[in-house]
Structures are given as structure tokens and as C-alpha cells.
Amino acid sequence: MTDTPRSLETAANPAGLRRVVIDPVSRVEGHGKVTLLLGEDNRIEQVRLHIVEFRGFEQFIVGRPYWEVPVMVQRLCGICPVSHHLAASKALDRVVGGWPVPPAADKIRRLMHYGQIVQSHALHFFHLSSPDLLFGFDAEVAQRNIVGVAMAYPDAARQGVMLRKFGQEVIRITAGKRVHGTGSVPGGMNRAVDAAERDTLRAQLPEVLAWAEAAVDLAERLHSGLPAHLRHFAETPAAMLSLVGAGGAMEFYDGTLRLREADGQIAVDGFEDQRYRELIDESVKPWTYMKFPYRRLLGPDAGWYRVGPLARLQNCDFIPTPRAEARRQAFVAAHGGKLVHAVLATHWARMIELLHGVEVVAQLLNDPAILGGPLLAGGERQRSGVGIIEAPRGTLIHEYEVGDDDLISRCNLIVSTTHNNQAMNEAVRSVALQYLDGQTITEALLNHIEVAIRAYDPCLSCATHALGQMPLSVTLRDARGAVLDHVLRSSSGETQRGATPHPLEQPQ
To answer: Residue 201: which of 119, 89, 85 has the closest Cα?
Structure first.
């Protein structure tokens, strides 16, 4: 493990330091960049992961009718729309007094959600991360991609495609469409599953389960075969947050919050989702549009934590499906029962979750309740509601307040990638110190930083909400490149104007 001093967030004397930029970070959803400031002899002085796009969903949802929201928020992302669809629905279930939803609606929503887990995990592992793991971090760029995987490992590439296809079909029969469906509504569902479509998917289950088992085998084999210097790659000890079900079971759709310290001790357990604000707060920084959640008890500097597959696998006491539970036990045994904080282990954990998702889908497809029955519940209206689920990338929180006019008056979203903001920054600083500090910078070395980020499977477009906090710099130049005018709005809202561009816009 490499120490990652907090000072690497901000260089003591940034003026005159050489700036190296990874822009954009590749093979992730959304747009982000990493900046490094280097001093003499290429010593690392500052490392930051910036989210430079702004979506503003928290703002423009305000004023919309509440029933539009479960459909609207899916436009945050084309990869994990189901996660936002269901989190919003769960929050608004409380508003319409439709909590809990009828059993049939609950099971159809779960089926949709676990289909999302399967398709998203398959996409990330096979299409986005496997090139690094199969070919090596320093392989040629022309090979280090999904095309290279398809040519060199055609069976693995095909399995990834087919697993994703299966998950998308599960989403289609529950939500109405593979992407941006409309099946879930406040208080329940507006459709049941068609029996013929159910039967079509059931017939595919033996093959899909075999593919899922093979995916775990591949991830385990790749992890076990890592060279010694990568065993602790981007190892950043952190607390872990996730939902858990009854008895400490792994749970993706509903449950209570559990937070485990980096040393394995459970700090918080059985925490009700509607009270999450008592546990978590958010801070902002002027160099990124992504917020920084933290534990209220510890504050912004010490209170950061990790969410996602690696956190969930180690936060739960067991997985309530037999094949995935056997694989979880193998994961624990392989690490001597100790908590794992090296991020490359996330890929192994992710494939165990994919297998669990297929097992749950199999159970639900055999449940007659998904074919019909009462689908909507209603009751006494409430002013607000919170919906928390485990999205593929980690814990997802939607919170809404609704006025008497049925319009949204306040919205707060803490998406999975936002929870992991500080963890990802710590990871890239660890990698920069271990592999780039004092070295001649090459594309292969810079890819080490991207590998650490990709392990978190960030959805950067979902995570951009820090309105008004990041400086805005605009420079007008003539045809020869000379500066004609420049406007800088600082993070505090002050505006400066002059013919001198922002330092980061100076030619490098």
C-alpha cells in the first residue's frame, strides 16, 4: 500500500509546475479528466479527478409534477436508467402513501432491478475493464479495447454480449423498453409481465447461468494471476456503505443502511433509509462539479467511504442465493478472511454480484406473482420521501419534497459515483505516487491511473450536481491566438474581467 497524503489534493506552490492532463478518462460513462502537477524531476505535487460536465437535474426537476419524475430522471444515464427509475419511484411511493407497494409490484420491480444489475455488470467487465486485465495495462492502445478482446478472446466477448442482452430483455418485459422504460410509477407498477415473454426468458436460464459462472471464473482467474506489484494496486483503506437485508443478507432493492469501518468493525447498522441525512452530508470543492459525501460524525476530511461491489460483498454477512454465496466464501477464503481494499478486487466482486443477479432473476421468473395481481397502492399523502437502492455502481439516494400543487419543490440526488468521489481521488493519488512519481510520463503509465478509475465503474454523467461551485472561465481569442477578452467567475460567485486568461488556459 502506498501512502496518499491529503496534500496531494492541492500543491503548495502550483505556479510554474508542469501540468499533465488525461482528458478524457476513457472507457467510462460520461466525461471526466485527471490533472497532475509535476515539479522538479517529475515529482508528483498534485493529482485531481475533475468532473467537468454539468447536468443540473436537481435544479430542473424542481417545478415538475411528481408523477413525471420516475421517467425524467432516467435521462441522467443511458446505462443505468433503471436504477434512477426505481429510486425515484421508491421515494415517491412515500409521497402518495403507497408504501409498501403490493407484493406483485414489488417482485416485478425487483425483477427489473436485477436485470439492470446483470446487464450493467456485464457491460462494464467485458467491454470496459477486461482489455486492461486480459492484455495488461501497458498493452498497445490499438489492442486494449473491446475489438481487441473480441479478436483474441471471442468466447468471452460473446458471453459478455449475451449476458447484457439477457439483462436488457428482463428490463424490457418489466419496464416496457430496454432503455428509458415507464413500468414503475409512484405506488407500484403500471404493467405485469407477459407469460409468453416470461417463458422465453426462462428457457434461456440454463445457458445464462453457465455464462455467469464462467464470468466469475474469468474474474477470479485474472485476479489470482495478477503480478505481485499489482496485488495492492490503488489500495486505499476506507469504510464501506451499503444496504443490507434481513440477517445481514446482500440486498439491492430494499433494506437498511450498514456502514463498516476499514478494519472490519460495524459502525452503523439497521439505519433507516428515510433518515439518511442524519448519517451523510455533502461538501463541494471549486475544481469539480461532483460533490463529496461524508459521514457527519467524522466530517469532510476523515468521513469519506466507499460504495459498490467491493463494499457490498464485504459488508453483507451472506448472499441469499447458493451459487453466488459459494463464490463469496471463496473470495473471503482467498484473502484469508481479511477485508480487501485493493480496487482490482472489485472486478471479482462485480462478477459474483452478476451471478447473484442471474439467480434472483431465475427465482422471480418462476414466481407467478409477476404475471398479475394488484399493482398499485395509495394512502395518506406525505410531503417528502426518500428512495434508496443499490445501483450497479453502489448506493443510490433520491430525495424529493412535493408541494400541495403536486409539483416538486426540492430534489437531492446522491448517486453511486458521487459517494465514491473521494475514494476515486485517493485511488488515483495512490497510483500516481506508486507508478508515476519521478518517472518519465508515458501513455502506459497514465493508463494505470485510468485503470484505477475504471475499477469503480464511474457513471460521471449521473454525478454532476454541484451548481455554481466550479469556476467558469471564458477566453476570447483572435485568429492568431491573441487574447481579446477574458471573464472568470470564481467559485465564490465573483466575476473578474481582463485580457489575461486563466492560468490553466495558458499554452503548456
So the answer is: 119
Total tally of structural domains belonging to the chain: 2
Boundaries of domain holding 181: 57-423
Q: Of 229, 261, 428, whose CA–CA distance to 339 is shortest? A: 261
CA–CA gap between residue 406 and residue 356 (Å, rounded): 39
CB 60, CB 457: distance < 8 Å: no
Nearest to 390 by CA among 269, 194, 258: 258
pLDDT-above-70 percentage for the chain = 93
Domain edge (last residue) among 407, 423, 439: 423
Segment 435-476, tens digit of pLDDT: 999 999 999 999 999 999 999 999 877 766 544 455 556 777
CA distance 170 to 311: 26
CATH of the domain at 96: 1.10.645.10
- 257 and 373 within one domain: yes
Q: How many Å apart are CA 57 and CA 390, to the nearest integer?
A: 20
User: From the DSSP assignment, how many helices (H) and strands (E) are in the chain?
Assistant: 15, 17
My answer on whether 365 and 496 are in the same domain is no
> Using one digit for the tens of pLDDT, what is the confidence trace for 80-126?
899 999 999 999 999 999 999 999 999 999 999 999 999 999 999 99
Residues 225 and 325 in one domain: yes
For 477-490, the pLDDT digits (tens) are 778 878 877 776 55
Whether residue 415 lies inside any domain: the answer is yes
Q: Which residue has the cell 425515484?
A: 88
Q: Is residue 30 part of a domain?
A: no
CA 342 vs CA 304, 359, 385, 454: distances in Å:
16, 27, 36, 13
For residue 332, pLDDT over 70 is answered with: yes
Tallying the residues shown for the chain, one arrives at: 508
pTM of the predicted model, to two decimals?
Answer: 0.91
Task: Tell me the pLDDT tens digit for each residue of 118-152.
Answer: 999 999 999 999 999 999 999 999 999 999 999 99
User: Is 440 among the domain residues?
Assistant: no
Domain boundary among 395, 423, 451: 423
- What residues are paired with 266 via a beta bridge? 260
Side-chain half-sphere exposure of 239, counting CA atoms within 13 A: 22
